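Dear all,

This email documents one entry for the complex benchmark we are building for the journal club exercise. For each entry we list the sequence lines for every component of the assembly. Then comes the predicted three-dimensional structure of the complex as a token string, followed by one or two observations. Please use this as the template for your own entries, and keep the labels exactly as they appear.
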Amino acid sequence: MSLARSVRLIWWVTWFNVRMLLVSEFFVLLTFVSPLIFATLAFFLFRLGHSTGGQTLLYAALGSGMMGVWSTTLFGCGGAIAWQRWEGTLELLVNAPTRYDFILAGQAFGAVIFGFAGILMTIAWGMLLFGMPLTSTFPLLLPLSLFAAVVSLGALGMLIATSFVLYRHANALSNMLEYPIWLVAGLLVPIATLPAWVQPISWLLAPTWGMDAIRGATLQSQPPWFAIGMCFALAVVYYFLARVALRYVLHLARRDATLDLR
Amino acid sequence: MSAVTAPIALPSVNADPGSLRTAWRVFWRGGLMSYGMLFNWARPAIYIPTLIGGPTFQLLFFAALGSYAAGRSPAYFALGNAVQVSALSGIFGMTMAIANERFFSTLPAILATPANRVALFTGRFLPFIANGLFVSLYAIAFGVVFLGVRFEAPTLGVAGLALLVTVFSCTAIGALQGAISLRLRDGLFGANLLMLSFLLFSGVNIPVATLPAWMQVISNLLPFTHGLEAVRQAAAGAGLDRVGGLIAIEAGIGVAYAVAAFALFSYLERSARANATLDVR
């Protein structure tokens, strides 16, 4: 498969998935409503602590938006293969001449890009209701930071999709894994305030570096090159792990004839 | 050629649908059956991650966020969230226990029976109240062990009463959400929205008095607001004479939601019969 055809396939699946998520009430809530509620909650909490500076509000808005991105990635990718199985499309997709891992990548990117729309909502919300200023210390680096975050979270989404399918109730895992990643990735609480043993865990998570890259370009005094680099490095690792997991899962499904088992 | 089959001998039914004994059976047995059959999460593979794992991490998250952002004790946030997590059972459970009748195609069969509707409806409350209490008690125990939540021993019973009433009133709004869900394509949208609203409006993380006035109006109409405040005050040593009013208001809110839920359920039943939409999904 040529590079152009691969990119085209991933792009079309991404776009198709974004449109599918747009008509899901659950994902609209997860991406657009839930981050606004968490952003409001964070604004009030910081106000209680007398931290009402523009930097603090932007910190909270970006963090709350990224919480929505993580939720959308988790739920959108966690059940991706299971949904294809229920809808009866998994057999067709796996046996199509196109590469299935590219289809899965498109699905993951669709969920992540859809989730990133929530960040725009929280920023607009903060500006309108709380008078939050919109500033960026490295505006030219911001698009690259966002791209790096999308790529790393997309690759993590692929890994989630291929590993969660081994657990019959993927949604239950997703229900459990929202809060711990919000916490460990330092989306609203700095990682430095958490116990020391938590910090190495946070280094392995794409949301940690994605958030660092975006905050680095908007709030920090140093350009976030290291965080951007970590995003891409982690994306490569996640992708290879996801491919190994996918090969194993598909091998099991073919061997046990469970590809279309609902 | 035709075959004549002998009529199937069915056991005679002696129960009078209008009797108190039958109503009790519908209330008790029906409630338990609805929990086991309609509550999708009532199996360990889902129950443990969702109703034990999720609340554990919720407590840790808000304890860390609250103490970092607001500079308050983690115990304040731990106790608020420990009470709020009962809504996982009260809201999602009750929504499933009512709305899943339609999705599992059992609604027409149930509504075709002459069973007492009050018993049928209220019987669903008990298992979810018990479940909500269990989840909350687990979360409170976690908060006591790891996050510094403390209760004054003399008023422990008052705190328990406030918790029980709060879980009831949360389950009642869950019943209303369940009844509304009979008409919706995705009933869990409203359930999720309620869960999030409690976090923001009900004093779980932010003291109600510090919210803007229009938000306080919503707070006073939602479950948890008064009950949780009663739990907090009782935990700090306030007796029934001081928190009795809060508990009574919470109970009143719960009863109001339960009555509204039953009225809506009855209305939807009549409407579905009239429009032949009982089994429309």
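Observations: Chain B has a mean pLDDT of 90. The two ends of chain B are 40 Å apart (CA to CA).
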